[in-house]
Amino acid sequence: MMKFKLSRFTMEISIPAFEQDHAADKLLYSTRTGKTIRISRPYLDIIHAGEHQDLPMPLFRTLIQHEMLVPSDEYETDTIITRNLSIAADHAINTTTLLLPFHPEPDNIFITQLHQGIASACRQLPAAGVKDVKHTIRLLLVLQEHNMDLSWLHHLDQHLLQLSNTYRVDFAFQMLYLHPEDAFVAPSLKHTLQNNIHLVIGNLWQPKRIDNTVIMLLHLAKQLESIPHLQLSITLLITGNCWTNWDAQMINILQRLSALPQATLFCYPDLSEADELVFMKFMSAQNIRCEWLPPAAFSVRPDMQVSLQQLLENSLQPGTIQILKVPAVLEQEELYRLHQYPSTRMFAQYYTDTFVQHLFATGCPCRYCQQLPLCGGNTLKTDDSNDDCPVFSRNLPNRVLLSAGLLPKL
User: Fold this and answer.
1) What is the C-alpha to C-alpha distance for residues 176 and 196, in angstroms, rounded to an integer?
2) pTM assigned to the model
3) Dist CA 67 CA 29 (whole Å)
């Protein structure tokens, strides 16, 4: 019979309401998979004793599925790195990211060049290695202009249908809009697998900025109710104690959006550990639901990093399409890294050849840290203290509690 051990990447987190009771339930959180379970103290004692055969079979299966229990002979750091390298290789083979240009005054020439550029990328795709498996082309549009004309996307949508019928390819659409203003009309492409809009909103301490954000989000909420194909991700950049300036309208629209299945709210504070906890309790007290934890399944971050500035410069070249040689998926960890705030380097480049060599060739404490799969490590880290770790890492238990609805309110 295979022997198992408690994964070293499983965190035990006390529930605040029962913190003084040593016999109370605890939360187990896996930084390998991002999964959380609540477990009673007797079962936790059985796990610590290594008597896994005495666990109820459903619990035993769950612990294995969530990678909280792993084979006793597994060297976990190697497993995680190998798996991420494999995910990245598959992603590189099966997915191509095209950075779409933006033109403030699109005309027929621009639209024709755009169609020709996408068709040319389709012709250059490698032959599909598996029958019935299509290559995915991710169309990425980056915007920082206001009152833009996006009508050309409707022409593009019809062209995508023709290309899908001609080549073995599926399309996904992602748009990153930095600091949107006014009544933004979200584009909805019908002939794509995904239609994701990422809004990044900052300066939320300014009264005018708050008012404009409320108007824009109210307008978007109505669109979401009528466009089932649309998925909206809203990233709020939190600085200072800006939330103390939010009025009832701002709080109400955030509550409304966070309750919609098509919208996901993310908050990334550029705060100290203590101030971040105050903000998290505020959001909990206001019943504003956020995604506080990142996904655990990361792709490799290539050595060539696409910065936000590069994306903006390239996207503003009229009539040109750039094939990004990196998996530029605009998930929240990417947005976090793109902005490159000094204290928000949680989603650093990692699992690259350079980082792996550093991890094993030096005494980097990250190699032994419980949060390595999520945090990614810090190549500049020199000791075991957490002073140079991101605030996210130090507050991870509170984020787990908040996601489970167990963080005490103000």
Assistant:
1) 9
2) 0.83
3) 10
